[in-house]
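Entry type: protein chain
Record version: 2
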Amino acid sequence: MDNITFKNITEFNQAQNLPAPENPLFSIGSKILNADDIQNCVSSNKEMSYTNQFYIISLKNIVSGEIIYGRTKYDCNTGTLLFSAPNQTYTVKDIVVSSEAWFLAFDEDYIRGLDIQKRIKGYHFFNYNVNEALHLSPKEEQTIKSIFKNIESEYQNNQDEFSKEIILSHLDALLKYADRYYKRQFLNRKEINKALFTRFKEILDEYFDSIQLEENGIPTVEWLASKLGVSHRYMRDTIKAETGKTAVDQINLYLVEEAKNLLLAPNASISETAYKLGFEYPQYFSRLFKKKTGQSPKEYIENATMN
């Protein structure tokens, strides 16, 4: 599998056949592919791995290929919005091309020390895998395109003291719309969300039924996400949208339910129960158990015995 690393925005623009950036820390551009270009770009069953050391937001209209949405194949011929954070490596299989594509790239230094830098850290979609892209409705696509065009217009304008502030205000709006549309996507894809959560529970069941808990400790969200074939941030957001609880909450609920069974066994030991459940320190187990049930493990055993 080929691997390409873009160290700076200038390298990225060159690879996309775009002009050199007006600002080495920020660039925006678009290109329209004709039928011959599209035919030449499609590479069946070929995997390409990319790493960029800056943020990239791209908007494409799908014309050929297939996007893998988690473990589900999802065909889409509407706008697809992709987000990539610095030093994030992502892999594309069966390269998807578009008749019209927009690219926006900016370096961390372009937003360093500004409020938008803090807000971007809160947008999980920058750390989703490329196969967890945002699929826009036609109306949503037009809204996003208009923002790209507004940014490009300001970018191509004669730069002055207001230029960066105006560009960042448009970028901030784009990110807020993306956040709204991702939440809509989670709601609209209940069946996909439900399937992912069902598989999440099955993996936990398998893990708890085996000896992995004692040997390897409590499973992490990163490990569970890798078993599901999605990024851990996407898994967390999907499970939160489906259940109202975080992935960590779901893991803890499993631990507490299993603890209840173990604690009611004859001559049960709280310490042994904690170790069996993968806790390194029994007091951590007792603290979690009381937080979730309202009573300590000792109180739970006593109350169960009385009833």
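Comment: The longest helix spans residues 163-188.
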